[in-house]
Amino acid sequence: MASQPAPRSARSEDTAELEALYRARADSALMRFTEADVHFMTGMIAHHAQALVMSSLAPSHGASPTVQTLTARTINAQEDEIETMRAWLQDRDQPVPEIHISGTSLRIDGLEHDMGPMPGMLSDAQMRELDAARGSDFDRLFLTYMIQHHSGAVTMVHELFATDGAALGDVAFKIASDIQVDQASEIDRMERMLEALPRTRLRP
Questions:
Q1: pLDDT tens across 95-150, in order?
Q2: Residues 167, 172, 173, 176: is their CA dihedral positive or negative?
Q3: Residues with Cβ within 8 Å of residue 135, at least 6 apart in sequence
Q4: Rounded Cα–Cα distance for residues 36 and 109 (Å)
Q5: Residues paired with residue 108 on neighbouring β-strands, in sequence order
Q6: Degrees (nearest 5) of the Cα angle 144, 125, 73?
Q7: Cα distance between residue 138 and residue 140, in whole Å
Q8: What is the pLDDT of residues 55-111, one digit of tens each?
Q9: CA-to-CA distance for 191 and 195, rounded, in angstroms?
Q10: pTM of the model
Q11: Chain centre to alpha carbon of residue 136
């Protein structure tokens, strides 16, 4: 005798149970994070924000078309990554930093604690020097300082991966890994661009 299909109500209950199990596992995955993960996301948002300030200077400071293309790409990529990290924090009920940029002035509201000095971040004096540069001088200084800045971001990823228990969640690992790959690739590109710039002559 052929088996009869399960009643519709039974199938609905099975589906509901599977959906509940999926949601429970998804919620469990969201809770798999550490203080180091939160510190990394928060710090990297602030780190990326300074890169936005640096890159935004290019059009008004006589940057070459090549450098302006680079800065436009940097702004697009890092704005997207900032939003991804903000969403990661929000999904886990963690404080979400707010970025306020005015010219070369950068303020980050909502940091739960003092992040301390972060690798690669430009000092106030370096930012003033970059803001004062124009044309080829800006290109050279921007590339030099952005290599420094990107190298700091790579260091932050290495420090996260070296922390016991950190970046075990799939999303956190992917965010950090993508940042490391992208920043390292851009460092290589900028080093080639810097090498290709005309040598400045020493004044007598």
A1: 999 999 988 888 888 765 556 689 999 999 999 999 999 999 999 999 999 999 99
A2: negative
A3: 61, 62, 63
A4: 20
A5: 99
A6: 40
A7: 5
A8: 999 999 999 999 999 999 999 999 999 999 999 999 999 999 999 998 888 888 876
A9: 6
A10: 0.81
A11: 28
